Amino acid sequence: MKTDRLTIAGTGYASRLIVGTGKYPGFEVMRRAIEASGAALVTVAVRRVDLTRRGGESLLDHLDLEKTKLLPNTAGCYTAEEAVRTARLAREAGLSDLIKLEVIGDEKTLFPDTEGLLQATRILVKEGFTVLPYTNDDLVVAKRLRDAGAAAVMPLASPIGSGLGVQNALNLMLLLEEIRDIPVIVDAGVGTASDAAVVLEMGADGVLMNTGIAGAGDPVKMAKAMRLAVEAGRLAFEAGRIPRKRHASASSPIEGLLH
Amino acid sequence: MTIVLNGEPHEAPGGASVLALLETIGLAAARVAVEINGRIARREDFAGELLREDDRVEVVQFVGGG
User: Fold this and answer.
1) ipTM of the predicted structure?
2) Which of A6, A179, A218, B59 is the most buried (most CB within 10 A)?
3) 3-state DSSP assignment of residue A42
């Protein structure tokens, strides 16, 4: 989708980078990393309140909700029913229709259960949610999610938290060529800044990451690197890269050589 | 009366409202979502929504996640 900024269901966001709030060493590092990332959307998970730990700090105390909008997820759900239930609770807690829909199909790879994902997407779209499904790199599934009313599709680049970068370049490129009417946000697998740049250079509308920043040696510095990489990657995409050639092509003129 | 709160038995005064329950466990109503027997309780109804013996109550909040 070609727009000057990331636009999901008619709402524009100041950044093409979406970041998570999990796995940080502490709330203060998280707050500073999110600020450095420039992200305008941050993901959160929905969990039972731990009644044995009263008076503990709350995540929301450490998020600037003026600058960042919450994108609740359904992480940890293995069926469409669980995901729909979690999404409804998230809407009630956050007073927003945005949901990052995850229906996981395999514990080891955390690959999505695309059948459950489609089922849950259909139900939640009907209930007025703005559904952003975390999916695999399958173009056919992406088309079905779009046709079911998903507001974006979020294919993985490699397994969640793996840091392996783009392991499916051809599939992502084919998906990006075909899905033009809703944003494609690459979600999962980014390990370092160049991975994020590659994704944006390919034409992705955005990128979502958590571990790549939160697990870095210096999360605040990595968050800044990711912000710059996303900006650089998008600029390169808009600029239009040179075609790849098999042989050299001199940059300096042939005319006027001394010999 | 005994209710099941987040999977554990919990003693609450008979006829307590959802709002009263949240207050006794020290939670701000604005930060949580509540489900009673599988049905979402709307925040604006917390004061009027009364709990009954054996109700299964889930109270959830946002935590860090990706």
Assistant:
1) 0.92
2) A6
3) strand
Q: Specify burial of residue A4 (Cβ count, 10 A radius: 0-12, 13-18, 19+).
A: exposed
Chain B: which residues have CB within 8 Å of chain A?
Answer: 5-8, 10, 25-27, 31-35, 38, 40, 42-43, 58-66
Task: Spell out the residues 6+ positions from residue A91 whose beta carbon is closer than 8 angstroms to its own.
Answer: A72, A97, A99, A129
Distance (Å) from the alpha carbon of A249 to chain B's nearest alpha carbon: 45
**Which residues of chain A from 200 to 229 reach within 8 Å of chain B, CB to CB?**
208-211
Mean pLDDT for all residues in chain A: 95
Given a contact cutoff of 8 angstroms between Cβ atoms, the answer to whether A17 and A227 are in contact is yes
Closest CA to A187 of A229, A234, A135: A135
Strand partners, A69: A41
- Active-site positions of A? 100
pLDDT digits (tens, 9 = 90+) for A83-102: 999 999 999 998 899 999 99
Q: Which two tokens stand for residue A215?
A: 């697990």
Alpha-carbon span A187 to B36, nearest angstrom: 33
Tell me the residue length of chain B: 66
What local confidence, expressed as pLDDT, does residue A55 receive? 64
DSSP A137: S
Question: How many percent of chain A have pLDDT more than 90?
Answer: 91
First to last CA, chain B: 38
Quote the tokens at residue A212: 């790549």
Give the gap in angstroms from C-alpha A146 to the nearest C-alpha of chain B: 22
DSSP letter, residue A259 = -
Dist CA A216 CA A209 (whole Å): 12
Residue A181: closest CA among A206, A130, A157, A147: A147
- Residue A56 pLDDT greater than 80, yes or no: no
C-alpha neighbours within 13 Å on the C-beta side of residue A258: 0
Q: Is A90 helix (H, G, I), strand (E, B) or coil?
A: helix
pLDDT tens readout for residues A122-149: 999 999 999 999 999 999 999 999 999 9
